[in-house]
Write a structure and sequence with these properties.
Radius of gyration: 18 Å
CATH architecture: Alpha-Beta Barrel
Order of helices and strands: EEEHEHEHEHEHEHEHHEH
Structural class: alpha/beta
CATH class: Alpha Beta
Number of strands: 10
Largest sheet: 8 strands, parallel
Number of domains: 1
CATH topology: TIM Barrel
Number of helices: 9
Strand content: 15-25%
């Protein structure tokens, strides 16, 4: 498997795993999006200073990527209009690109948001719908941005109500294999691709832990693996704690994911995640020596 990820004009060496910090530009994020609200506004509006301060803190803690999302994809989340999503994420991307040296990722499925985000400085498209919307493939293939394709059964607004698998691991791997193949056929270089099993996206708690337990199987796809388990309900189900008390559980899952092939960890808690990455790297180095 290639260890180099092409992100715009950057070549990212993933032989040592990296951390992706989460910046939610949404009022209904399950975790922390509302913290970026402009307190002077009656309606939800991103405070750019708060967003930049949060991003700067995550970069100082070790984040190599900042993932910016303007539409919540939590279970049952409502669809956000195109203009609303653009208004939420593009100003942050522009400001971040001009002020901080970091790989900017945009968490979106809408082709027009992708296009404007790339123009504003984003160099990674993180698409939970795996380029399924008309025009999304064209935007990515005609750019030099990297792409993360994720597995999701159903849609965010209904994905937890109609869950059905014969074998969740086999089916998720088959889906991602097909998506990677289609991307390559459309001229997207393998060096620009990441895969994500989609923890929490159309899966029960049992499905999520089965995927985590068999994470090493995803290495057969020969594509770097991004994992996002930070503070998710699968963690809460195991430890019976609310969202803001799931750090230890999230890091336990992170440590397992790193030991079984994850190359990028998407996290709300960058400092702790970087500690897990450094310890994992120390163990790997000791094993090699």
């Amino acid at each position: 498997m290639t260890q180099i990820l092409s992100v715009g004009d950057r070549q990212i060496d993933l032989s040592t795993p990296a951390c992706m910090g989460i910046l939610n530009a949404t009022p209904d994020s399950f975790s922390d999006g509302a913290l970026l609200n402009d307190d002077s506004s009656k309606n939800f509006k991103i405070d750019l200073d708060k967003a930049l301060t949060r991003a700067e803190a995550m970069v100082k803690e070790g984040a190599l990527f900042i993932d910016i999302g303007g539409e919540s994809t939590r279970p049952g989340a409502a669809i956000v209009s195109l203009q609303e999503e653009i208004d939420r994420v593009i100003p942050i991307i522009e400001a971040l690109h001009s002020r901080i040296d970091v790989c900017i990722s945009v968490d979106t499925s809408k082709p027009e948001v992708m296009k404007q985000a790339i123009a504003a400085g984003a160099r990674l498209i993180n698409d939970v719908r795996a380029l399924s919307l008309d025009g999304a493939m064209d935007v990515v293939k005609n750019s030099n941005a990297a792409l993360c394709v994720m597995h999701m059964q159903g849609k965010p607004e209904t994905m937890q109500s109609t869950i059905s698998y014969d074998d969740v691991v086999d089916e998720v791997i088959a889906f991602l294999r097909e998506k990677v193949s289609v991307c390559k056929e459309n001229g997207i270089s393998p060096s620009r691709l990441l895969i994500d099993p989609g923890f929490g996206f159309g899966k029960t708690v049992e499905h999520n832990y089965r995927l985590l337990a068999e994470l090493s199987r995803f290495s057969e796809l020969q594509t770097p693996l991004l994992v996002g388990v930070s503070r998710k309900s699968m963690i809460g189900a195991a430890i019976d704690r609310p969202v803001d008390q799931r750090l230890a559980g999230s890091i336990a899952a992170t440590a397992h994911a790193l030991a079984h092939g994850a190359k990028i960890m998407r996290s709300h808690d960058v400092a702790a995640t970087m500690d897990a990455i450094r310890v994992n790297s120390a163990i790997s180095s000791a094993r090699k020596s």
